[in-house]
User: Fold this.
Amino acid sequence: MDENFKIIEEKTLELTFRVEDESHGVFNALRHILMQNPDVEYAVYNIDHPLTGKPEMTIKTKRGKRPRIVLKQAAEELQKESSEFKKLVDEAL
Assistant:
């Protein structure tokens, strides 16, 4: 596991994690994707200080769905959407 990714707390239906070198923008995009998933009860993140804080996110899933799985799916979707956006920009410029 990457040392920049740290699990703070993990329960059956809830996962809280921190990513040391990521920004508010990445967490907001990830939260948006997670909240579109019908298996997610909620996804929230917090940054203690806008300049020096480390983002922490909590994902709560519905019964029978594992937070690690929905997080991995959301990260893959974010990567796909980012690649599609980059391709659009590259073609336009």
